[in-house]
C-alpha cells in the first residue's frame, strides 16, 4: 500500500514505483485535487486502464458524473460504507485480474 498527502505526491509515487492494482483517490486534496490528479494519470498510457475509485465527502448532485468525466472508474462518498467499498474493490480487482 502506498499513500500520499496530495495529488502531486500521488503522481510522483505512481511514476517512481510499480503500477498498483487500484487507486483510491480523495477528490478534495490540497495543492492538486483529485480531478486534476486523475486527469494527469490518464494521460500516461501505463495508467490508462488502472481502476481509480474516487472518494469524496462532497456528495452533491452531479459529483459522480464529474468524477467519471475526470477519468475515475467509479465513485464512493464519505462517510465510506465499508461493505460498499469492499464490493467496489472486488469488482474492479476482479476485472483487472481477468483483462
Mind explaining what this structure looks like?
This protein has 99 residues and is an alpha/beta fold. It has one domain (19-97): Rossmann fold (3-Layer(aba) Sandwich). Helix content is 43%, strand content 13%. The protein is built from 4 helices and 3 strands, in the order αβαβαβα. The chain has helices at 7-16, 34-42, 63-70, 82-97; strands at 23-26, 52-56, 74-77. A 3-stranded parallel beta sheet has the order 1-2-3, with helices on both faces. Strand 2, helix 3 and strand 3 form a beta-alpha-beta unit. Helix 1 runs parallel beside helix 2 (34-42). The longest helix has 16 residues, at 82-97. The chain is globular and about 35 Å long.
State the gist of this model.
This protein has 99 residues and is α/β, with parallel strands linked by helices. The protein contains four helices and three strands; from the N terminus they run αβαβαβα. It has a single domain (19-97), classed as Rossmann fold, CATH 3.40.50.
* Order of helix and strand elements from N to C terminus: HEHEHEH
Q: Would you tell me the structural class of the helices and strands?
A: alpha/beta
What percentage of residues falls in helices of 4 or more residues? 40-55%
C-alpha Rg, in Å? Answer: 13 Å
Please state the second-level CATH architecture.
Answer: 3-Layer(aba) Sandwich
Outline the biggest β-sheet: 3 strands, parallel
The CATH superfamily title: Response regulator
| Fraction of residues in β-strands | 5-15%
Unreliable stretches? none
The CATH topology name reads: Rossmann fold
Q: What order do the strands of the largest sheet run in, or round the barrel if closed?
A: 1-2-3
User: What is the CA–CA distance across the termini?
Assistant: 22 Å
